[in-house]
Amino acid sequence: MRRFRNVKIVATLGPASDSYETVRALFEAGADVFRLNMSHGDHAAFQTLHATVRKVEEDTGRPIAIIADLQGPKLRCGVFANGSETLKEGQKFRFDLDETPGSASRACLPHREILDALAPGTELLVNDGKIRLEVENCGAEFAECRVVAGGEISDRKGVNVPDVVLPLTALTDKDRADLAFACSLGVDWIALSFVQRAADVQEAKGLVKGRASVMTKVEKPAAVRAFDDILAASDGIMVARGDLGVELPVQNVPPIQKQLVHKSRAAAKPVIIATQMLESMISSPVPTRAEVSDVATAIYEGADAVMLSAESAAGNYPVEAVNTMNNVALEVESDPAYRDIIAASRGARKESVADGIVSAAREIAETTDIQAIFCFTQSGTTAALVARERPKVPIVAMAGLKSTARRLCLTWGAHCIEVGEMGRFKQAVIRAVRAAREHGFASKCDQIVVTAGVPFNEPGTTNILRVAPCDEKRVYQAEPE
Q1: What is the pLDDT of residues 258-276, one digit of tens each?
Q2: What is the DSSP string of 328-361?
Q3: Backbone angles phi, psi at 332, to 5 degrees
Q4: Domain 8-72+170-343 is of which CATH architecture?
Q5: What is the pTM of this model?
Q6: Which residues are catalytic?
Q7: Dihedral sign computed on CA atoms, order 202, 205, 206, 207
Q8: pLDDT tens for residues 296-337?
């Protein structure tokens, strides 16, 4: 089950992919990570999906990462007496706290915190931005608006407020319950929705208590503005282009995507590009050319992973969608221009011994006859730093903990193997040599690079590099204890 590409594929599970057979087929087609969307389904369903993924992991002998994606504070309007109404450009429309079913002139907005934060001139977006309203007058219990762009408004449509940082936490009561449940299952990543500030991430980390890594979904303008602080607080980033494209002009999204990928890579934190990547494959067995280009662009930019949502969760062709992503990745990464682009975007960050070690590992691997870089890692830091270098040769993450091996499934280029604790460096080198041959990375006459931190089993101690022959006898003779 070795992958011959570096970018990882995230597949969302749902009604179209909830059986063992389909999950296994998705994995074999190329899915490295599975996402549980906590917005849809109950805990019993999530527990079943989690168990199914773990069964596939056991049967294939390869670590698999699971992301639990929290719903977040989704803001919605109330219901309408007729089910829906059509708003026309230039007309007046009022939001208030009155729960009476709405009409063509008003509707309930059952979120006092939104009304408290509004001011004249604030823009409100309804139904994924199809309807745009401008606040002309407002108070603690109402907002009188002018319709800038009209359209159909109906029961419980989403409401976005792109201009304002709302006094909301990223975690609702439902999210807190879902987070606790997901951590009890043993998921590897918790994804936070509608984050506005670094404090939202820190709050979630306090609840997670180290049981999973925390990923921030960037989908609000406030998160883009505070991204440096958010990145520092997060373990990973998801560029969630759906809501981001609603709250910002659509032409702003591509450069923001590029900037967030660049910053995340520099911080050695995995970054996922998500939303509508192969949207047409929900109902079509083949994607559009534009969608293929979109996936390819994310790979050329150096993203750690690309993600499928409804395509694999509810679509008619989930396995075909994963297979398409896999084929696009293989083709892009075989393009000579891909290596030039990746190399050109590599930073010169060498602030610590670990930075110097992983940089040297890449340079040695790329200038001599080295088949792979093997990094022994307890917390995942060494593998993440090696991946930041985006080397030409494969990265093999030799993880001391199963949880680390699983989390690293999201990291660019990392082929993850759980090896348990190591006591001596010679033992580590011998284990790497055996793995190189067992997993098809090298033959007996080849060489590999081995990086590690000594003493072992202490996070953040990357301080040693060795070029080793893939011959155990030569290792025994040459390697010091």
Answers
A1: 999 999 999 999 999 999 9
A2: HHHHHHTSHHHHHHHHHT------SHHHHHHHHH
A3: -65, -45
A4: Alpha-Beta Barrel (3.20)
A5: 0.92
A6: 35, 76, 217, 275
A7: positive
A8: 999 999 999 999 999 999 999 999 999 999 999 999 999 999
